[in-house]
Structures are given as C-alpha cells and as structure tokens.
Specification:
81% of the residues lie in helices and 0% in strands. It is elongated. Helix 2 packs antiparallel against helix 4. It has a domain of 90 residues. The chain is mostly helical.
Length: 131
Amino acid sequence: MKLHLEETIGSWFEENKEEIKHVEGMLAEPLPAEPTMLDEMLRRLDSEYARMNSLYAETLSYYYVAKRLFLKSRKDKWTDLDREIHMRADTITERRLRDVLAGIVDAIKSKLILGMSIRKSYVSEAKTTQR
C-alpha cells in the first residue's frame, strides 16, 4: 500500500467502515455453547483476525505519515512540548482509528484464545465420557 498525500484517513475509513462494523458485531456475539457452532465462529474470527491486522497496519501508516506532515519545524519559536501538543492534536483522528483497530485485533485474539480453551475442554470432556 502506497499512501498518497491527497488520501486521508477519512476516505480510508469510509472504504473500510462496514467491514470494521461487521467485525465489531461479531465480537459482540457471545461464544456459542454448542461445539460445532463454536468451531464455525472461531473459523470466522480467525479469518477476520488477519484482515483486521492488515487494516491496523494501514492505520499505522496513515498515523506515521500524518505525524510527519504535522510536525512543526524547530525554526519556529515553539518549544518541544508545544510541537508535541500540536502534532498530537493534528493527528487525533489517525490515532483514534489506530487505537480502535488495535483494540479490535486484541479483542479477536482474546476471543480466539477463550474459544480454543472452551473447545479443548469439550474435547477432553468427550474423551472422559467415552471411557
């Protein structure tokens, strides 16, 4: 992905918001108690995990480009703190989306780990009842 200066995080978000909302909806669903439904949900989450990681990487790129664009010159009479405050204010949208995507990636990972633990308990339970 090559970023162009005319591209904005706003247009990027418009292109990807339905996909992000879809994954947020998946994360809001509780893990099913039935093993085959649990497996299906874990497969869907696993495929979305890779895509959300990719989108997260894109938001990082936008953030780093915006950070560079909005960094104030040392030639002005700005202190380093002033420069940092203004740069953070100017990149708030990029940081917010970066943080949202990081949260989604972490939430998917946590849900996958929990789901795999539950699935493992189903397997060991089934082995115990078969004996």
